[in-house]
Amino acid sequence: MSTNRLIAGNWKMNGLAADLAEAKALAEALAGEAATTRVALCPPATLIAQMNWQLRDSTVEIGGQDCSDKASGAYTGDISAAMLKDAGANLVILGHSERRAGHGETDADVAARVEAALAAGLEPIICVGETLAEREAGRAVEVVSSQVMASLPESLSGRAFAVAYEPVWAIGTGLTPTLEQIEEVHAAVRAAMVARLSEGGRTAPILYGGSVKPNNAAEILAVLEVGGALVGGASLKATDFLGIIRAA
Ligand code: PGA
Asked: Is it the case that residue 1 has pLDDT exceeding 50?
């Protein structure tokens, strides 16, 4: 098992202070277990500092869900990478399809955010994935490879990061690609990472995301080049998330 395997939970726009009880339950359940997999929670930015305090004795890491490409200034409502780091995050999800589709983020925008994250000492989790129309047109590999090439700046070489392959049509739908389809795209993602970053693209984990649940995690995580998972809905409850972590 590779040591850089990562299971990250993306709470999206879910979670109030009371829901930190789930993070506490997760940390308590994992306490004392041999950590063969890195585990992270990415709550809304409003909860990062409180979660950081709550998880202070835990190996569970914390990530943001997006960051600005700017360091500071007159950008009302935006959050910088340094602010996430200051609040207690060490990771940040970038280029999630809900940001790309809902906020018009382009590959170039994502690459600029990756640069900002690296500058602040955050480890980026860079998301790519095809839409259903692209999959049905037989373009999944082409689309995802092109997103990897354009969303990963050269400065990632030698830095800690992850790529997450999340087919848009599998997110929050209960649908998942076949294991063969996951293997095919992950191989293409790896090839694009190496084409982009040479040796620097060989070791970073490629996470799979999109309707990962306790009952499908083991078979997905066993696929060649699947180096972990990015989990949405099933990360909100400690019991579900633990089921996925323990399948790794
Ligand atoms: P899901 O979301 O697990 O709820 O499908 C995954 C994601 O968007 O990261």
From this structure: no
Tell me the best of 66, 206, 211, 220 to mutate to test the pocket of ligand 1, counting ligand atoms within 8 Å of each CB and taking the most.
Answer: 211
Question: If you search the block for the tokens 């339950």, which residue do you land on?
Answer: 25
Q: What is the residue extent of each domain of the chain?
A: 6-247
The whole-model pTM stands at 0.97
Distance 129 CA to ligand 1 centre (A): 12
Q: How far apart are CA 163 and CA 161, in angstroms?
A: 7
DSSP label of 75: -
Looking at domain 6-247, which of 3.40.50.140, 3.40.50.720, 3.20.20.70, 1.20.1050.10 is its CATH number? 3.20.20.70
Q: What number of other Cβ atoms are within 10 A of residue 224's Cβ?
A: 10
In this predicted model, what pLDDT tens digit does every residue of 10-51 receive, in sequence order? 999 999 999 999 999 999 999 988 778 999 999 999 999 999
Candidate of 7, 66, 171 to mutate for ligand 1, largest count of ligand atoms within 8 Å of Cβ: 171
**Which candidate, 145, 215, 212, places its Cα nearest to that of 177?**
212
Distances (CA, A) of 22 to 54, 75, 87: 11, 32, 19
Q: Which atom of ligand 1 is nearest to the CA of 97?
A: 8
134-150 exposure pattern, b = at least 16 Cβ within 10 A, e = fewer: bbeeeebbebbbebbeb
**166 is annotated as an active-site residue:** yes
Catalytic residue among 22, 96, 98, 130: 96
